[in-house]
Design a protein that fits this description.
Helix content: under 10%
Radius of gyration: 13 Å
Shape: globular
Largest sheet: 7 strands, mixed
Structural class: mainly beta
Distance between the termini: 40 Å
Strand content: over 45%
Number of strands: 11
Length: about 120
């Protein structure tokens, strides 16, 4: 069982930045593909970004490409999401997820990100 805890959410003005962190415990962090998803009110959960176990390959949703950066520190069992040039439409609960292959096996509890216009 892997436990994931997100942090770093909050309220920020449009154009600002936030860095989310997700720390894992209870498993071998380095073997998992780590991802960030988000869910806005009234909408389905959507993929944001992912990084493969070795950290060398990343994937991004078109909506965040060029503004968000995912990274991981396997020594700290932590994955990060650096979010720049934030827009009101980025407002959502952001979830961290761990996957053995691609489909998440474990989820965090989420952290709220609110971007004011």
């Amino acid at each position: 069982q892997v436990n994931l805890v997100e942090s770093g959410g909050g309220l920020v003005q449009a154009g600002g930045s936030l860095r989310l962190s997700c720390t894992a415990s209870g498993g071998t962090f380095s073997r998992y593909r780590m991802s960030w998803f988000r869910q806005a009110p009234g909408k389905e959960r959507e993929f944001v970004a992912a990084v493969k176990s070795g950290g060398g390959t990343t994937y991004y949703a078109d909506a965040v490409k060029g503004r968000f950066t995912i990274s991981r520190d396997n020594a700290k069992n932590t994955v990060y999401l650096q979010m720049n040039s934030l827009k009101p439409e980025d407002t959502a609960v952001y979830y961290c997820a761990a996957a053995v292959v691609t489909t998440p096996n474990y989820w965090g509890q989420g952290t709220q990100v609110t971007v004011s216009s």
